[in-house]
């Protein structure tokens, strides 16, 4: 599925527009002809496994890395030649949070504030505001290196948004925190979004991708599909059938040998089977193979979409 499923949004203003964006490292094509149109005020996700080119794409879009090919417009300006002025309007939070471990929370924020030209009362007020917003008031004198994953994440977000960027890039911001912190973090992202910030976030978590307004499914440097989670599920090029019954492990092995079956994965007490689009009556097709086991059609999930878009290559 290569189609863009979010055409129905038809936004008036794109904050990121990329055309044919590519990056090669020697013979390795890390990003291959990426096209993007990300509307203002949305949260857009890059979903894909390790090494699929998410970080490289983000670095290209922030101007930190020079593209091998392609064009990028950020906030209505060509990125090329405007990197410096755009930096003031962009925030970037890296996978490793990029904090100074041997500086305190206050010192980290002071340092970032100074980089963005904040001084005096303006800097003090903004930092106080962020300490309150990100629940770090009790940690001001604590060294960043000694904080928990969730606290580091909140400090990193405070640093990345200190200058109130219009566009925020987050590279796998939640990989080092627990599910509760992830949920809280996403609430904060929606607050930022509500205040007008456009957010591009990379992840390899399906549940996280599902929270985005729209997302791109990436694999080996290629965008395999994009659109809102619902549009992607509606347009999925496969049908989901759930099978329950006995000897599911053996039955799964039989199913995955079949050329019309994209994948079969055990979820609790049933098998979730993706049947290729060319099969006219998928339920009947699976029922015939099921030898008395129960087969039912199921609603697709984003994980199913991911599997279907990547041809079943990223599942067992
Ligand atoms: N500076 C570099 N020099 C050479 N190869 C690189 C460089 N940066 C990235 N790559 C390669 O580009 C490909 C994409 O890497 P990238 O880090 O963008 O993937 P990713 O999807 O962000 O993965 P992860 O989640 O593991 O960070 C990989 O094959 C990686 O080895």
UniProtKB/TrEMBL annotation:
The cross-references to SMART domains, in alphabetical order and at most eight, read: AAA
Q: Which Pfam families match?
A: ABC_tran
MF terms from GO for this chain are:
ATP binding; ATP hydrolysis activity
Instruction: Tell me where in this chain the ABC transporter domain is found.
Output: 16-245
List the InterPro entries hit by this protein, alphabetically: AAA+_ATPase (IPR003593), ABC_transporter-like_ATP-bd (IPR003439), ABC_transporter-like_CS (IPR017871), P-loop_NTPase (IPR027417)
Q: Does the keyword ATP-binding apply?
A: yes
User: Source organism's superkingdom?
Assistant: Bacteria
Q: Which UniProt keywords apply?
A: ATP-binding, Nucleotide-binding
Can you say what this protein is called? ABC transporter ATP-binding protein
The lineage, from the top, is:
Bacteria, Pseudomonadati, Pseudomonadota, Gammaproteobacteria, Oceanospirillales
